[in-house]
Write a structure and sequence with these properties.
The chain is an alpha/beta fold and 489 residues long.
Length: 489
């Protein structure tokens, strides 16, 4: 299995991308921003390219290409359900735009109508905005569950607190919505334990699986204790090695069947008259109005086919070892603070590590990692503001206590965040070693690097002499112009 894993691991679009750095070296980019968006798997890219030879719209079987498109698009739905071990008699899969966000908004509206007499949605403190704001908008009331505390470091969701809230508000709760894996710390939540608690107290569970599906095995149904089954699961194709693909929603059919679909249009009706329309009873047809992202869905399903062939247990084992080893090495670097519980035996992690270097703003560290080490990371609050601010509160207070009111706002923004290094299946021990080496270098030379940067009018750290010209590196217009000119010769 390791041979197949390594073959796939080395076959991603963009692994060999080169950039020229501030010191003049030209090196390979180390891509550690996978929690935001992953690189494209080569097998999926090739599958999409091959499919385009047969591309046509779905909803027709009258010509060869339409038959192929319809067949493969249906296969994509079925492949998602089988990958997630969701019983196809009980669950449906449908695709949405805007990654996970559109799907979670969709479900928040569905559940608002499903039990209108209930007013409360329960979410956790660690949620991404996409699994926070939709519930605030569509539920009458939201309760945020705090996290376990391990000597000041937050871990996963506090199950005792959750159980108490469920007991106290029994009969009033629409659902519990939680992330499977934090997009900030990579900490893994016990989603099946949470599902059991929710079902034991007569409510539902929705899982944001955007950071989970590419790294951990997921079992939506088929548990010995059926209360550990999930009611709905949402994930995003662009975080699952298929950028350009849609988001996916997996949900119990009985819940969706009782609610008229939010989006209406072509393809999701059986008939339309001047005074009424008849919605299809078929899944997923009734949930997908309009022309879908056919190629994107097929590319996503191709990724899942590859991951399933390797085995998610195997992938999780390899990635866990990489993350755990990287954590141990970073913990040895002076002046570095890692956020979230770092003891892997207490709180397993998946995919990412967030940190700050003492006396350096997160934006400055991210800029140096890019400009001098060609390591692509992300900084700020990662669309999880409450979670991030909770973890850095002490640092914020220390940094801003002595500032006057005029300087406070700017300083708060510069220090209100952290640096996140996030990993994908394509990352290796060598990539982790490059990160650790770079962090040591920055920690040991904080004053040197700080003197090379200043803040621009937007609050970004800019090098005093080095500037990458993006248009010189790559431009779609230049590429198209070159392509057209070649065709004209």
């Amino acid at each position: 299995m390791m041979d197949l894993f390594q073959k796939i691991q080395g076959d991603f679009i963009g692994l060999d991308t080169m950039y020229t750095l501030a010191d003049g070296r030209k090196t390979r980019r180390v891509y550690l921003d996978s929690t935001a968006s992953t690189l494209m798997m080569g097998a999926a890219h090739s599958a999409i390219q091959e499919f385009y030879n047969h591309y046509a719209n779905t909803h027709s079987l009258l010509h060869f290409s339409a038959k192929i498109s319809t067949q493969e698009y249906q296969w994509a739905h079925d492949r998602v359900l089988s990958f997630l071990q969701a019983d196809q008699e009980t669950y449906t899969c449908f695709f949405t735009g805007s990654g996970s966000t559109a799907g979670i908004n969709r479900l928040a509206r569905v559940f608002r109508k499903y039990q209108p007499e209930r007013e409360i949605a329960i979410i956790s403190l660690m949620e991404h905005h996409s699994n926070d704001l939709p519930h605030r908008k569509y539920a009458q009331k939201v309760i945020h569950i705090p996290l376990d505390n391990h000597d000041g470091q937050p871990g996963c969701i506090n199950l005792d607190y959750l159980e108490n809230v469920l007991k106290t508000n029994r009969g009033k709760i629409k659902y519990v919505a939680v992330t499977g894996v934090s997009n900030v710390t990579g900490i893994i939540n016990p989603i099946y334990d949470i599902a059991e608690l929710a079902h034991d107290h007569d409510t539902f569970i929705i899982v944001d699986g955007a950071q989970m599906i590419a790294h951990l095995p997921v079992k939506i149904s088929g548990h010995k204790n059926s209360n550990r089954n999930l009611d709905a699961f949402i994930f995003s194709g662009h975080k699952t090695y298929a950028p350009g693909s849609p988001g996916a929603v997996i949900c119990r059919k009985d819940i969706l069947r009782d609610i008229e679909p939010e989006e209406v249009g072509g393809g999701m009706v059986d008939n339309v008259f001047l005074d009424r329309y008849i919605i299809s009873e078929e899944f997923p047809t009734r949930e997908e109005a309009g022309t879908p992202n056919i190629a994107g869905a097929i590319g996503l399903a191709a990724v899942l086919e590859v991951l399933d062939t390797i085995g998610m247990d195997f992938i999780n084992k390899v990635e866990s070892q990489l993350i755990n080893n990287t954590l141990k090495q970073i913990k040895q670097i002076p002046n570095v603070h890692i956020y979230g519980e770092t003891d892997y035996s207490i709180c397993p992690r998946s995919a990412c590590i967030s940190f700050n270097i003492k006396d350096m703003d997160h934006g400055l560290v991210a800029a140096i990692l890019n400009d001098y080490h060609n390591i692509a990371v992300r900084n700020e609050c990662f669309c999880a503001h409450p979670y991030v601010k909770e973890m850095i509160l002490d640092d914020l207070l220390e940094a801003t206590t002595k500032l006057n009111e005029e300087d406070f706002e700017d300083a708060f923004k510069l220090k209100s965040g952290m640096v996140r290094a996030s990993f994908g299946i394509y990352n290796t021990d060598d990539d982790a070693e490059e990160l650790v080496k770079a962090m040591k270098n920055i920690s040991e030379n904080r004053d040197y690097y700080s003197d090379l940067y200043s803040l621009d009018e937007r609050g970004n750290y800019v090098h005093s002499s080095f500037k990458m010209n993006g248009l010189e590196q790559f431009s779609i217009k230049s590429y198209v112009d070159h392509y057209v000119n070649q065709k004209q010769v």
